[in-house]
Automatic annotation (TrEMBL):
Mg(2+) binds at D240, E281, D308. It catalyses: (2R)-2-phosphoglycerate = phosphoenolpyruvate + H2O. It comes from Kineococcus xinjiangensis. This is Enolase. GO terms for molecular function: magnesium ion binding; phosphopyruvate hydratase activity. NCBIfam families: eno.
Length: 424
């Protein structure tokens, strides 16, 4: 039973304020959760509440969201059974009363939702992945490690937001993580040898100034081989284009030219032919439904097409995407929708309709590792949580090491089966 709920304003990995929530249950169990925050946020995401007081944290303070937890949400939840996650989350949605959680704030609501789940797991004396996933949770995800950052996450001239490596050929998560870290270090020396910058972007990847998408892919391909791995069978590649960021009424402003959805689709088709790409996220903008459907019919049998800004972890938008065959995978971000229950509903809807799911961090993160447990709980087979460097990213990968160790012989690493192209 929930006895008390508290909250405070803490800092995220970009030095911006975010909400941390603490829940106390009557058996003395205590749990804490912190809320992440995006930079390339989708227009259809649940609404993150910021104070807007320019005198504090450039208007980004979250004192009102913290106050909403302490004054309104807490008192409303006292007496609820923490194991009744669906009832707790419905109470939060009802208390807020808006379609996008803007009154109390999705950041206030999500913090409470996650802290309640963690409290319930602790009260049941189970690890979170086991509490949420049940006795059969055993699949360790492929870590999609973002090693070159562009777009809204870096000041480089690179339009594509994320260049990821996927160590599909590893035998375990632990080995996959080592391969990723070794490739990351190899990439650093490749960049240095070319006189390119080795400063980092928001998600811990390098942020060199590069003329094109292909240049970035070539540098990564070189790093993979320099680290001693075979490109494609050991380590595959993936992109998050985050195309909404460079889309306007005129079209897609990409690598110095204005392009159409058709042009980008054939561009990606060329990339899929030239590089071992297993996944492309947000190849087009969040409202280009027709473009997505055409792109998915051209490429969806060869590569995973992931909707992030398009679906915003929202079951209604996902249903539209399923009906129109706009993609074949769902990116899962707990703070896009704002409660754990709705997140689990979105994943279930995806899986039931043959969509894959990729668990995801945000570019603004904290030391909270809930998404690592969530990835194993729902059997995503894929997680993206940044580079194999910087503690707010590595915290999630480290938690997956612990989960793999705990599962011991029962653990299975997803490997190539996580992606459509490689299972054909
Ligand atoms: P964001 O970026 O957290 O800044 O939205 C992550 C992504 O686009 O996947
Ligand atoms: Zn994205």
């Amino acid at each position: 039973t929930i006895e008390a709920v508290g909250a405070r304003e803490i800092l995220d990995s970009r030095g911006n304020p975010t909400v941390e929530v603490e829940v106390l249950l009557d058996e003395g169990t205590f749990a804490r959760a912190a809320v992440p925050s995006g930079a390339s946020t989708g227009a259809f995401e649940a609404s993150e509440r910021r104070d807007g007081d320019a005198g504090r944290y450039l208007g980004k303070g979250v004192e009102q969201a913290v106050e909403a937890v302490i004054e309104e949400i807490g008192p409303a939840l006292v007496g609820f059974d923490a194991h009744e996650q669906r009832l707790v989350d419905q109470a939060l949605i009802d208390l807020d009363g808006t379609p996008n959680k803007s009154r109390l704030g999705a950041n206030a609501i999500l913090g409470v939702s996650l802290a309640v789940a963690k409290g319930a797991a602790a009260a049941a004396d189970l690890p979170l992945f086991r509490y949420l996933g049940g006795p059969n949770a055993h699949l360790l995800p492929v870590p999609m490690m973002n090693i070159i950052n562009g777009g809204a996450h870096a000041d480089s001239g690179v339009d594509v937001q994320e260049f990821m490596i996927a160590p599909i050929g590893a035998a375990s998560f632990r080995e996959a993580l080592r391969w990723g870290a070794e490739t990351y270090h190899a990439l650093k020396s490749v960049l240095k040898s070319r006189g390119l910058a080795t400063g980092l972007g928001d998600e811990g990847g390098f942020a060199p100034d590069l003329p094109s998408t292909k240049d970035a892919l070539d540098l990564i391909a070189e790093a993979v081989e320099k680290a001693g791995f075979s490109l494609g069978s050991d380590i595959a590649l993936a992109l998050d284009v985050a195309a909404t960021e460079f889309h306007s009424e005129e079209g897609y402003r990409f690598e110095g030219e204005t392009r159409t959805a058709e042009w980008l689709t054939s561009f990606y088709e060329g990339l899929v032919g030239d590089y071992p790409l297993v996944s492309i996220e947000d190849p087009l903008s969040e409202d280009d439904w027709e473009g997505w459907t055409n792109l998915n019919s051209a490429l969806g049998s060869r590569v995973q097409i992931v909707g992030d800004d398009l679906f915003v972890t929202n079951p209604e938008r996902l249903q539209r995407g399923i009906d129109s065959r706009a993609a074949n995978a769902l990116l899962v971000k707990v703070n896009q929708i704002g409660t754990l229950t709705e997140t689990l509903d979105a994943v279930e809807l995806a899986h039931r309709n043959g969509f894959r799911s990729m668990m995801s961090h945000r570019s603004g993160e904290t030391e909270d590792t809930t998404i690592a447990d969530l990835a194993v709980a729902v059997g995503s087979g894929q997680i993206k949580t940044g580079a194999p460097a910087r503690s707010e990213r590595v915290a999630k990968y480290n938690q997956l090491l612990r989960i793999e160790e705990e599962l011991d012989e029962a653990a299975r690493y997803a490997g190539p089966s996580a992606f459509p192209r490689l299972t054909r």
